[in-house]
Amino acid sequence: MSFQEKSAWVMALALTVISIMCGWSVYKASVAAGGLVSPSIGLISSYTLVLVVIVVAGQVVISICSPKQASTPADEREIHIERKAGYTSGWIMGVGAVVSMSHYLHWNNGDMLFYMVLGSMALAAIVDYVYRIVLHRSAII
Hints:
The chain crosses the membrane at residues 7-27, 47-65, 85-106, 112-131. The protein is an all-alpha fold and 141 residues long. Helices cover 85% and strands 0% of the residues.
């Protein structure tokens, strides 16, 4: 397994776990409040900080386990994989943003717009890294 694939695993797992935790926190707070809670800088920054710590720790661990691979630059195949995954995740982000804005135009709810765009960003990033893993694992790119 290449360093880039290991890194993609770390990122995909960290983003998935943090996104689920953040979404669950917003859901619980919204149920307790009886409606959608407004975005909180404290909530978002705390989950961002946890994400950064998990990612840095994960990258350090895989770098220590395979230091030679960590310093090797991406080859042609890996560059192609990054581009293809980025292209796909870009479409997901774009569609998510358009859907979010359309929802806002219809319902006029800025809090929901924020959460929908944040969710689109998280989903696009997760798909990016999962697709990288799939492409690394497949024989055909």
